[in-house]
Backbone:
């Protein structure tokens, strides 16, 4: 098994579960991303934020991992949003139509505001 070049930390921002990723999101990140998601949903948040601000690289396998997180969250009735994507990866999310299923925000604060506003709408 390959060592992962991805790290994740989990926190809460105003009721939003935040998974802050760093490094590379590729095939070796499966365990890191899965464990972080599981830790993030332990307290039953209505939404999970994947923060990519410290991510250097995402490949096609990494995109597939993100899709699997979205599928799992959807089956649990949970919303997933993302923040911190570079312009390059925003375009990739658009091209792959991933942005049709995951709302993109500039940063954690705007994501928290958007999720809170969405919940009260």
Residues:
């Amino acid at each position: 098994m390959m060592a992962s070049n991805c790290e994740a930390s989990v926190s809460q921002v105003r009721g939003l579960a935040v998974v802050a990723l760093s490094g590379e999101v590729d095939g070796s990140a499966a365990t890191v991303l899965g464990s972080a998601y599981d830790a993030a949903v332990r307290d039953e948040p209505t939404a999970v934020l994947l923060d990519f601000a410290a991510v250097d690289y995402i490949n096609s396998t990494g995109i597939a991992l993100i899709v699997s997180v979205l599928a799992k969250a959807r089956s649990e009735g949970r919303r997933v949003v993302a923040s911190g994507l570079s312009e390059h990866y925003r375009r990739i999310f658009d091209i792959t139509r991933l942005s049709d299923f995951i709302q993109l925000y500039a940063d954690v604060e705007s994501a928290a505001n958007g999720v809170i506003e969405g919940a009260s709408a």
